[in-house]
Amino acid sequence: MDSYRINLPADGIPRKWYNVVGDVPDALTPPLHPGTRQPAGPEDLAPIFPANLIEQEMCSDRWVDIPEEILQVLALWRPTPLHRARRLEEALGTPAHIYYKNESVSPAGSHKPNTAVAQAYYNKVAGVKRISTETGAGQWGSALAFGTGLFGLECMVYMVRVSFEQKPYRKSLMHTWGANVLPSPTDQTNAGRKIREEMPDTPGSLGMAISEAVEDAATREDTKYALGSVLNHVLLHQTVTGLEAKQQFEMAGESPDVVIGCVGGGSNFAGFAFPFVPDKLAGQDIKMIGVEPESCPTMTRGEYRYDYGDTEKMTPLLKMHTLGHTFVPPKIHSGGLRYHGMAPLVSALVDKNIIEAQKRHQIACFEAAVQFARTEGIVPAPESSHAIRVAIDEALECKKTGEPKVIGFLLSGHGHFDMSAYDAFFADKLEDYVYPEEAIAKAMKTVPNV
Amino acid sequence: MDSYRINLPADGIPRKWYNVVGDVPDALTPPLHPGTRQPAGPEDLAPIFPANLIEQEMCSDRWVDIPEEILQVLALWRPTPLHRARRLEEALGTPAHIYYKNESVSPAGSHKPNTAVAQAYYNKVAGVKRISTETGAGQWGSALAFGTGLFGLECMVYMVRVSFEQKPYRKSLMHTWGANVLPSPTDQTNAGRKIREEMPDTPGSLGMAISEAVEDAATREDTKYALGSVLNHVLLHQTVTGLEAKQQFEMAGESPDVVIGCVGGGSNFAGFAFPFVPDKLAGQDIKMIGVEPESCPTMTRGEYRYDYGDTEKMTPLLKMHTLGHTFVPPKIHSGGLRYHGMAPLVSALVDKNIIEAQKRHQIACFEAAVQFARTEGIVPAPESSHAIRVAIDEALECKKTGEPKVIGFLLSGHGHFDMSAYDAFFADKLEDYVYPEEAIAKAMKTVPNV
Q: How far apart are CA B179 and CA A359, in angstroms?
């Protein structure tokens, strides 16, 4: 039988995370204190993160041991399969070999638990009893609810009110794992009360929810805050996907010419692509493509500068590609990709031309998603469909040139909780959106001059 | 690291299905023609099933080769993992070893694709262009949409109207895989039109939807009908789960003392348990428990007799445990377990005391489901929670006796599309229901005397 799937043995989970800073030291840029705009030290982050994660955030070792307790939980769904998309290849009539690493098999249905489990563990050993976070569409909130549930921590999720009301099943999932979920803005925080007074009918926003979650952590002794993307330690935790994939490509006797991931905050792409950076630095010809939505073109139309991570200017300034912290992307269905900024490590590698940034429209991505579902059988998350779109485009290019390239992409999650987006696609209700130059220039004006 | 998961290599998918009729020949009872009540021959089934599946339905060979084309599709998610539920064991404080075979990782989220893929393949090679079926909650309909999608067949799903309206996302999933889905009763069939005339406001029922799907197949040259459980060939296709699990138990150096599955029509339980029947017949002490809902107690309170498979008396009579074809179970959240009858092969093995039948209330099952979700991390389908309940009960019994039994159960699916049921559970809105003797006696009176 031709191979359709490459499985690692149960003990094939990596024992160490790969830290790209070990190979590209100057990719590590210091965060700046939001008040003083001076480099922020561990003490500046201590109110909201435990010391062990702050240390990891600053770490420049190439390899970081994964604690046994984390491996035991990851073993619930890891190693994940690497699939050869033979039916998709056949449908495209391409000589390319298309592979996808399938992160949809995690209990929360995405790559997010790779870091949620690690963050829950490190908080637990640091003596933290309760973790606060924000969530938009709910992928990160449910992953953290899962992780904290397994380590016996309390979890407080501030969920953007409009999502709370429109996506009730993500909320139910978090409840089932034992988390507390409130529609943000709430009346439980100063930030929330202030916003409700000023805007009683607000549908909420990620910026507001971040403010509430950070305030919650900063004002309670037993609580720390957790973030699902962007930060170095989050990207580090995601490298299990790329490290496994490298083993699996080797088992298949292949070496990827192109690796692709969708990019919102950058963690799923980084986790998949970074482990291939050493090969690229050693001279191997690997194209690494991060794909963002046309409607939130952070890397392709933003600037590489210091900016705030949130609209309320509560977070440290990070050096990253940004559209400006006041930039509000339209309500595309890939909620997970609607972020004005970018992981600093991804930004640095884009700046160094190690990583290539591309962007795609959502309708073309849904077309790719449906073609993928009908050939490969998995219904992808709208976010993941951006990676699929580019993988198909690359494979169609190979059809023209006759090159049998090896293309690998990360399937970051399934679409079981996003079926209303597919309904909108089939009903021709989706729109593509390109921001006019002026709109981006206007948001960029709010980026501080540092 | 302690083992938490036993993975088979990618080529570990069984190459043959196991047919329990080869070991228990008199378990095979002939279906009777609904009109003449004489044994039905292949020609009686030919209007609705292709010849190759009719042959499989009557087959008494112990082993049946799995065609390469089916294996290639199963390879998308098979072999599935066998997990050791160490966190659940610890929470229970039991000396038992609890294992679960995880069928939730299939693209449709349940065990159903194991047979949907096989049925789509056999219809395709028989020259069938289009398959009709019915679905209640949508698990089977979405699995068949997935299977037919991959083999390029058209799929027509008659979905019970109330589910069509209340569970729109299962419908969206079927659309994404390319199936046509209509709320039943429709105006596309004689049966549907007749029902709509008589009952314009009917919410629909599985009985009505079966009538429509069967009429569709019987009256169109290009179309055959497919059923997701009950029949011998369906159970046969499901044995990949038990065959894989046997290999995995061996890898773990264990041998199960108890194997458990939930039972609606019987296929997931049979697929998991039947491959252990030869060991039991050879004298090994294995308890095989099929778990049904208290509110639909087919095996525990029904009789082992010939009865119709549907309310409209269109199907052949099958010898099975039945509560009477007019029996209407209450609307519990395990929609997949609401069936008045039982797979004839499961019924025969219950009758021979090879299989033990148990029943559980839904609230106790949801309690088990939440405990499972919070320890093992997977949110189970309400149906699967019946198996979990009994696994936990067995493990708690071991705690009393000190016996370190090896308990294995089939996790038939995840609950991503059933989160409203969890909401109802957390809101204390679930009820347990026991049918009074008179109600069951009344439905049993409609069973024909054969």
A: 31
Q: Could you tell me the pLDDT band of residue B1, with boundaries at 50, 70 and 90?
A: low
For the cut 70, the answer to whether the pLDDT of residue A2 exceeds it is no
What pLDDT score does A325 carry? Answer: 87
Q: Domains along chain A?
A: 5-9+79-109+240-444 (3.40.50.1100), 17-66+112-232 (3.40.50.1100)
Q: Is A3 helix (H, G, I), strand (E, B) or coil?
A: coil
B352, with CB counted inside 10 A (0-12, 13-18, 19+), is exposed
Strands of B185-269, DSSP E: 223-225, 258-262
Q: What is the pLDDT of residues A74-96, one digit of tens each?
A: 999 999 999 999 999 999 999 99
Question: Percentage of chain B surpassing pLDDT 90?
Answer: 83
CA separation for the pair B99, B83 (Å, rounded): 5
Report the mean per-residue pLDDT for chain B: 94
Quote the DSSP letter at residue B103. G
Nearest to B399 by CA among B99, B100, B89: B89
H or E segment to which residue A100 belongs: strand A97-102
Which pair of tokens denotes residue A207? 């910026």
For testing the chain A interface, which of B7, B66, B78, B82 should be mutated: the one with the most A CBs within 10 Å? B7
Residue B63 sits at the chain A interface (C-beta within 8 Å):
no
| Angle in degrees, 0-180, between the axes of helices A362-376 and B139-151, rounded to the nearest 10 | 90
For chain B, how many residues are written? 450
Give the position of tokens 């002026």: A438
* Interface membership of A16 toward B (CB under 8 Å): no
| Amino acid identity for residue A255 in this structure | S
Residue B370 or residue A210, greater confidence:
B370
> Rounded to two decimals, what is the model's pTM?
0.95
